[in-house]
Amino acid sequence: MTGVPATATRRIGASVWEVDLADGDVVVAKRHPDPNAVLAEAASLEWLAEPAAPPVPAVRGHDDRWLVVDHVEPGHPSPAAAEEFGRALARLHATGAPAFGAPPPGGPTEAAIGPAPMRNVPAPTWSDWFREHRIAHYARLAVDAGALTPDEARLVEAVRVEAPDEPPARLHGDLWHGNVHWAADGRAWLIDPAAHGGHRETDLAMLDLFGCPHLDRVLAAYRELAPPADGWRERVPLHQLFPVLVHAVLFGRGYAQQALAAARALR
Q1: Among 64, 144, 174, 192, the one annotated catalytic
Q2: Residue 194 burial (CB < 10 Å; 0-12/13-18/19+)?
Q3: Which of 9, 36, 100, 118 is the most exposed place for a label (fewest CB within 10 A)?
Q4: Residue ranges of the domains in the chain?
Q5: Which pTM value belongs to this model?
């Protein structure tokens, strides 16, 4: 796939390997069960690769099952890297997207977020799109998975979906702290994206969902370039409801209870 023979492999995740190449390079090979997921991640990485944005691994090749990207030597979080990451994330969001729900150029409508399906369907307004394709859709999938009852799903679907009127931002789309790779070069890289057009507060809320090193520095630096609208902290639970529902679909009832608590607070 890279045109260079492999000399050694090391498994580093459930479906991820480091691969030594004969020319001395090291790449990361990631296996997806769905060809659309491969295409979606490759298109996401290429779309996010803006010069002023956080760095992303270069795509070296892909086919129906495998994605190969450059290896990025791991390092450690630092306040300086966090601040530059916050500024770079603001610049990424400002590059924009054609519409809310728009996939990356060349990316499929039926994409993925981690191992869960994710549909990228352009829409004229953020609230209608987020309500249907990020709240109601995953509430229904959670019912199918046995994580929510139909009555609970209706409670989730009834939340108020409101956010400031802003143009579509270019989102990483799955920006929990595990997808921020603190590298040996002193920078924070973006990995494993599920990119699409959305509201920039969604990426910020996802960073806060499971904790992120030096998050206060990240957000302070972000606000220097692109302050979120007033009341954005109160809207964090709304934006977090989407990834929590995804986790309910994948991992069951514990996350469903978290989603229900958020839904009750948002009514």
Answers
A1: 174
A2: buried
A3: 9
A4: 73-265
A5: 0.95
